[in-house]
Amino acid sequence: MIGRTIICCLLFSLSVAAQEQDSTLTFMDRLHQVQQYLDDKAKSKVDPGYIEVPEKPWRVILRYKENMVLVDYDHSIDFPATNERAEWKLRFEPPVASSVGFWVGYRGTGFSYSKSLTKNAGRYYSFSTTGAKYGFNFRLRRFQTQDAQFSATEYKDGQLSEEPYDTAFSMPSPVWIRSVYLNGYYVFNGRRYSQAAAYNQSVIQRRSAGSLLLGATWYQSSFDYSDIANGYFMIFAGGIYRIKVHQANLGVGYGYNWVPFRGLVVNAMAMPTVSVYNRVKVYKNDFNYYLAPEEPVDDYGEWDMETKLWANGKPDKPLTMLKESDNDVYYWDDGSETSYSALQLNLDLRLGIAYNWSNYFIGIQAQYNNFIYKKNQSKVNIFDAYARISLGVRF
Question: pTM surpassing 0.70?
Answer without folding.
Answer: yes
